[in-house]
What does this fold into?
Amino acid sequence: MATSQKFGGNWTEDKLNIFTSYLDAYLIALQNQEFKKIYIDAFAGTGEIETSDGGQYLVGSAKRALSADKKFDRYFFIEKDEDKAAELWAMVDSEFPELKRSVSVYCGDANEKLEQIIREQEWRYNRGLLFLDPYATQVNWTTLETVAKTKSIDVWYLFPFSALERMLPKNGKYEKWEDNINRLLGDTGWREEFYKKDPQMTLFDLFPDASDQNDGERKVKDANPDQIKEYILSRLETIFPCVSKHARIFRNSRNSPMFLFCFAISSDNPKAKGLALRIADNILKKK
Ligand SMILES: C[S@@+](CC[C@H](N)C(=O)[O-])C[C@H]1O[C@@H](n2cnc3c(N)ncnc32)[C@H](O)[C@@H]1O
It folds into this structure.
């Protein structure tokens, strides 16, 4: 078995099972519809995984999508690492020769290639399922905006919760991360949402010029993981017509939140939205 990618923890399997359950239900729900069904895996990996915390072998998202009983009309895989992209293509070639004609593997950055793939489809006649499964903060907010504008793509996004938390220091000195956070969340509202004025009077209040913060006002973090989760979901709701409230937090062995697994629908058709949300919520509510 190929082992060129190692990552994740126990939750990696939960994530993949949640995603695959949705994918199977999605293909059944759309089987008698005229739309062309498109699968996009923007952080595709190789199709096989060895988790870093216990030597567990798992089938990855790309292979799961290709093995589903019902089929997509097109499969787009994006993978930045050249060796992994080659391994992925070799897997498609040897294990799914009958699907090869409908598969494209792009080697490059997910944001760039996703923009290209989306631009090249006629979304009025297509329905898409997108998996965004990055290690960290690779997904730009502008990419999510492009996805939402298709009004045709359902997206599962493994939001990098711990990476965001690491960029939000308790002492309010977030300046060096600011651009990165804005790129991830799409605006600057998080500064007011996650920070408040430090209520403690110190020497800085008596000698404000000595403060090294730009506005001379010291801030402290005032946000717990639940508030951060709600904020992330509220940001997604600004661009997607529908976002599941049951996003799942994946935690590490010390119970710290690592990722937030979010589901968003870009269609504004009430029937399509209702069905997709019911399926996703049912899966997410099961522990
Ligand atoms: C968490 S793994 C994805 C695993 C995959 N979904 C699976 O189930 O097997 C993240 C993958 O994204 C790739 N990657 C990292 N940065 C990327 C980027 N900017 N664009 C595309 N792929 C990237 C990594 O090489 C890695 O294979």
Notes: The longest strand covers residues 257-265. Residues 175-221 form one domain.
